[in-house]
Design a protein that fits this description.
The complex is a heterodimer of chains A (about 220) and B (about 325). Chain A has about 220 residues and is mostly helical. Chain A is built from 10 helices and no strands. The termini of chain A are far apart. Chain B has about 325 residues and is of the alpha/beta class. Chain B has 2 domains: about 240 residues, P-loop containing nucleotide triphosphate hydrolases (Rossmann fold, 3-Layer(aba) Sandwich), CATH 3.40.50; about 80 residues, ACT domain (Alpha-Beta Plaits), CATH 3.30.70. A 6-stranded mixed sheet of chain B has the order 6-7-8-3-9-10, with helices on both faces. In chain B, a hairpin with a 2-residue loop joins strand 1 and strand 2.
């Protein structure tokens, strides 16, 4: 059995795979963190400035919405390349794990912002009205009512964003981003080592499965409906 | 006291002003239960939301205890709203908070109560709405009636002086409606709270309200004590509501009246007169024979009333009429 495995997976360097998995984890984790930190307030602003909402501001909404749409409509592979000068300016390099994070955030944050906006819109308007009638300020409505009520939806949004970031992170291998995608491209694609390709893809599948499961559990835990 | 002085509201739709409430004068006394009845779209939701400025008026003044609330700044408005509780048709509880946390929510928002104060007040309110055993449940685990009682407890948390009820019983079954209305009546009596209640059911008005305003197409078309409006409706809309609540089909009634012989009268008894054995003695004295075409005996809030439609044949009609009037019975000759 062991001999068979060695024969089939002769090119696989497990320590390399382990390292690449860890890199992917770091890239996804860090970019998810920043995507949420940046995307959440943008999502809240999109919601609040939207039509018939608490801080209705058609101009502000149009600008914000436009920026989000532009970032979301650029194919990620192009975004990766376009972002290179900016990434170098920001952290000194566009390569490796660190170099991949800014473009990942640029792709992930607007995506997450839209998901936040959508889940906030699903909060019953009556709850906002009731909270207003209690004498709450806009800030209190957001933090006391809107975000807690939308929490399951927001967690589901974080899950979807995380999974999107896994595939984006793999794509960043193209510009030397590091992680499993980098491995798949350098060994699996450029050196025709199919076994490495299969293993990296299998690991990515497992990664996505685990994320989805975790996310679903959390959503269930916080759902009171 | 809530005073509307030429208050009006219109919405801008495609650059045109669509009136939701035509200029309205109205006074709601402190401590009374004031009903606003109307079909959907009549403007009653708008009217009740003007009282806590969830809808800002397009014109006129709203005075609450002689203070013009329409000039309030944002922070004055927030402080004012804490003194006005509100309950809703669909309860609008926060699904992410427990029953106790929902009730504590307005107190936490106010930011002027200590933790201990909040805890004690929540316990007190839970007991008042008989939900002490459900403190740690989430709204989704409660029945409709229980949810509305949580809504009432939450509305009372900051000790308001006014309670606004927006179709508070419309999503409840008849039995639960009864118990919620009884709770509202108790609160009104014990706390001296002014209650403004909007509904499309005349029955709700009949059970708890002292005075009522009937709305139609953005105007108050009739206003007065419930017994007055209920027993002697003037406006066609009011009549529709009263008939509806008594399940009277007005066409059917007309047909019945056509078949009957003699004079047709509607007698209205109120209070103690309801229980007096009056008709028999009047018939004996005047020699008038009567048959009952329709009748109903019920309560308006705590006052019993009866309303009978009779056809009278033979005897001395004037003697009968005078005897009835002398006994404090309102007599209306229909034919």
């Amino acid at each position: 059995m062991e001999a068979l495995m060695d024969g089939l997976l002769s090119n696989v360097d497990w320590s390399e795979i382990g390292l690449a998995s860890w890199d992917t984890l770091i890239m996804v984790g860090m970019s998810l963190l920043f995507s949420v930190l940046i995307g959440l307030p943008i999502g809240v602003l999109l919601f609040l400035t939207g039509k018939r909402q608490l801080l209705e501001q058609p101009a502000a909404y149009a600008v914000l919405s436009f920026v989000v749409n532009v970032l979301r409509s650029v194919p990620f592979i192009i975004l990766l390349i376009v972002m290179i000068p900016f990434t170098v300016m920001l952290i000194g390099t566009s390569l490796g794990v660190a170099g991949a994070i800014p473009p990942l955030v640029a792709g992930g944050a607007p995506f997450f912002a839209r998901l936040v906006e959508t889940s906030l819109r699903e909060v019953d308007r009556g709850i906002i009205e009731a909270t207003q009638a209690m004498g709450a300020s806009v800030k209190q409505i957001v933090f006391g009512a809107l975000l807690p009520e939308a929490l399951p939806g927001i967690i589901a949004g974080i899950t979807v964003t995380a999974i999107t970031l896994v595939s984006y992170a793999a794509m960043s291998g193209v510009i030397g981003g590091g992680g499993l995608g980098d491995l798949a491209i350098r060994f699996g694609y450029q050196r025709f080592q199919t076994d490495v390709m299969v293993i990296t893809v299998a690991l990515l599948v497992v990664f996505v499965q685990v994320l989805q499961m975790l996310g679903d559990r959390l959503v269930l835990h916080f759902s009171r409906k | 006291m809530i005073v509307f002085d030429q208050v009006q509201k219109s919405y801008q739709v495609d650059g045109r002003a669509i009136p939701a409430l035509h200029p309205t004068d109205m006074t709601i006394e402190t401590g009374e239960v004031f009903g606003i009845v109307g079909h959907s779209g009549a403007g009653k939701s708008t009217l009740v939301r003007l009282i806590n400025l969830l809808e800002p008026p397009s014109g006129g003044r709203i005075l609450i205890d002689d203070e013009n609330i329409t000039h309030y700044s944002a922070s004055e408005l927030r402080a004012f709203r804490r003194k006005v509780g509100m309950i809703f048709q669909h309860f609008n509880l926060l699904s992410s908070k427990t029953v106790a946390d929902n009730i504590a929510f307005p107190m936490k928002l106010a930011g002027i109560y200590s933790k201990a104060e909040i805890r004690d007040r929540v316990q007190e309110l839970l007991a008042r709405v008989s939900l002490s055993d459900h403190a740690n449940k989430y709204p989704s685990q409660l029945s409709g009636g229980q949810k509305q009682r949580v809504g009432i407890a939450r509305a009372l948390a900051c000790r308001p002086t006014i309670l606004l009820c927006d179709e508070a019983t419309s999503a409840l079954d008849p039995q639960t409606t009864q118990s919620v209305l009884r709770l509202l009546a108790d609160i009104n009596r014990e706390l001296g709270l002014t209650i403004v209640l909007i509904t499309h059911e005349m029955d709700v008005v009949r059970r708890v309200c002292d005075r009522v305003a009937v709305m139609d197409a953005g105007r108050v078309v009739e206003m007065g004590p419930v017994s007055e409006v209920f027993l002697h409706p003037q406006h066609p809309t009011t009549r529709d509501f009263v008939f509806e609540s008594e399940s009277i089909d007005s066409e059917e009634m007309q047909e019945d009246l056509q078949k009957a012989k003699g004079r047709i009268m509607r007698l209205t008894f109120k209070g103690d007169a309801t229980y007096k054995p009056l008709l028999g003695s009047v018939a004996r004295e005047s020699g008038v024979d009567f048959s009952i075409l329709s009748g109903r005996i019920d309560h308006i809030k705590d006052t019993p009333y009866g309303q009978l439609t009779l056809s009278l044949v033979g005897g001395d009609l004037d003697v009968a009429m005078n005897a009835l009037k002398a006994a404090d019975v309102h007599v209306e000759v229909l034919r």
